[in-house]
Amino acid sequence: MLTVLGDPMAKLFLTEIPPRETIQEEARTMFPQVNPESWYSHILLRKVTTEFEINLDKFFSQYNLSSGRFTLMILLNKYVDGLMPSELAQMVGVTQATISGLINSLEKVEVVQRTTHEKDGRSYVIKLTEKGKKMTGEILPEYQTRINKFWSEFPSEEKTQINGYFERLIKQMKEIGQKPTAE
């Protein structure tokens, strides 16, 4: 069964993953060029990332936030002198339009404020308000506790191994988005 997440560009995901053998057999028969083990790994990775996002959204919705808005709050908490919208956009890998929407929503609930740039009066920086600082201070410990609990299932050696795999996956990720090469 496919479920649509609340996203302007709807993301579909499998709510239940068929057994490994079924996926591998379907890959062999329907797509002979696909490595069945790679296909299964891909489906598992997609499931993990999707479930992680869904559960982060559930957590942050308790505070009327999204993980994206909280990410901005964390950055602004770190950079107390504020950041320009273009700097925020670059740091989180989104467009200026997307960052403007996030800033506007946080400004509307008085979590951030725009202040004139110290060196360039035509520009502005985004800073956390006192309310934003307080919220960040309240949410961050609970968020960190949940992340620690999530990873507590894995001993240190396994986390080190998983981190190594993640680092390799990140390096490989650009391969997925590249245009196919002519053979």
TrEMBL record:
InterPro entries: HTH_MarR-typ (IPR000835), WH-like_DNA-bd_sf (IPR036388), WH_DNA-bd_sf (IPR036390). One of its GO terms (molecular function) is DNA binding. Keywords: DNA-binding, Transcription, Transcription regulation. It comes from Bdellovibrio bacteriovorus (strain ATCC 15356 / DSM 50701 / NCIMB 9529 / HD100). Pfam families: MarR. This is Transcriptional regulator, MarR family. It comes from the Bacteria. Residues 41-171 form the HTH marR-type domain.
